[in-house]
Write a structure and sequence with these properties.
rod-shaped, mainly alpha, 379 residues
Length: 379
């Protein structure tokens, strides 16, 4: 007798599904995400003003300072007077009349003292030449043209504005216009579809209706995630680009104001140098007056009415010159007062501009939060 052995093979099949109570919520989240994406929520670009404009106070203040700088300043009056005085050898018409009267007095040899006075007051005297060069502006600081060029460059479009304007305008927000990203979407979609094929082939359900639905869902889920991530990335880049452009514009405004102040300082320095030249000329006139006083100081003149009268004319002329030059020395301070109202207005305008910029920044932040809120809820 023989024996027989029977072998049976039992095939088992298992299938994994999401946790049943979570299926409805997952489907709702996916549906809401697709609806949000299709509706364009979150794709808006803030269309309001991004940079606070220079206010009326700032513009008025800057224009006031510019007008004052361009107009005839008070320093020119003192300079003109001192130049005229040096051009006449330091002798006013009144003083000249007194010297003429003095020269008519007989028996007095004043040639040596007069020659000394002439040398002191001569236009060829190096001290007088130095004073004249300062007063004429020959030794002025010459940096104003360079400051003007620097100001023009500071107000030109920055590299950030030139290079990031397209990103700031949202040119890159649409992922479908990015060829490189589209290649990524295509590759990822193919990978997701291939993974479904392999999974269903392993379970023997390749080609079934469940396979078609799962494959479509896998591809859609992959593409939705990629598109959402790409959009969020470009939105952040857009916000960053706008921030960089705004910062560059604000820096340009501050730099322009600084250059304007520097130009004003140069002009003030030049005025002070010219008036310093006038004061040097005044010192020369004092020395000349001292010599002329010695000419008139001899005892032999004390009883001479003609000399006494000449002394009166000369003294009056020297007093007038001294008072005029003293008044000229006060002109820089008076001239600076013309710029004070403009500087005050510009300072007030700067404070108001800063507040306007804070309000603009707050409005942009509020707008972006409203744009992001629905996506944050889905996340």
């Amino acid at each position: 007798m023989g024996s027989s052995t029977t072998t049976s093979t039992e095939q088992q099949h298992s299938e994994s599904q999401p946790w049943a109570p979570a299926v409805g919520n997952l489907q709702q989240i996916l549906g809401d995400s697709k609806a949000l994406y299709s509706s364009g929520v979150g794709s808006g670009v803030y269309g309001g003003q991004r940079v606070a404009s220079l206010g009326d106070d700032t513009l008025t203040g800057l224009q006031s300072m510019r007008d004052q700088a361009a107009s005839d300043n008070a320093g020119a009056l003192g300079t003109s007077f001192a130049q005229s005085l040096l051009g006449s050898g330091g002798i006013s018409p009144t003083t000249a009349q007194g010297l003429s009267m003095l020269s008519a007095v007989p028996n007095v040899d004043t040639s040596r003292l007069s020659g000394l006075a002439d040398r002191i007051g001569s236009a060829s005297n190096p001290i007088n030449q130095t004073a004249a060069s300062f007063m004429s502006g020959a030794r002025d600081l010459t940096t104003i043209p360079q400051l003007d060029q620097l100001y023009a460059k500071s107000q030109a479009p920055s590299a950030a504005e030139t290079n990031l304007s397209g990103i700031a305008a949202g040119d890159s927000l649409d992922p479908t216009k990015n060829a490189i990203f589209q290649n990524l979407v295509k590759t990822s979609s193919n990978n997701a579809l291939q993974a479904q094929k392999e999974a269903f082939a392993a379970s023997g359900r390749y080609g079934s209706g469940s396979f078609a639905g799962a494959a479509t869902k896998a591809v859609n889920d992959t593409q939705s995630q990629l598109y959402a991530n790409q959009y969020n990335t470009e939105a952040q880049r857009q916000l960053s680009a706008n921030s960089q452009i705004d910062a560059a514009r604000q820096a340009a405004s501050q730099l322009g104001l600084g250059i304007t102040n520097a130009k004003s300082n140069v002009e003030s320095t030049n005025n002070n140098q010219r008036l310093a030249g006038a004061q040097l000329g005044q010192t020369q006139q004092g020395q000349e007056a001292s010599v002329l006083g010695q000419v008139l100081g001899g005892d032999e003149f004390n009883s001479n009415l003609g000399v006494t009268k000449a002394q009166g004319f000369i003294g009056a002329g020297q007093t007038g010159q001294s008072q005029a030059l003293q008044a000229a020395s006060q002109l820089p301070a008076l001239d600076a007062l013309r710029y004070q109202p403009g500087q005050t207005l510009a300072g007030i305008g700067s404070l108001l501009q800063g507040q306007d910029q804070s309000n603009i920044d707050a409005a942009m932040q509020s707008y972006q939060e409203v744009q992001d809120a629905p996506w944050n809820m889905i996340n």
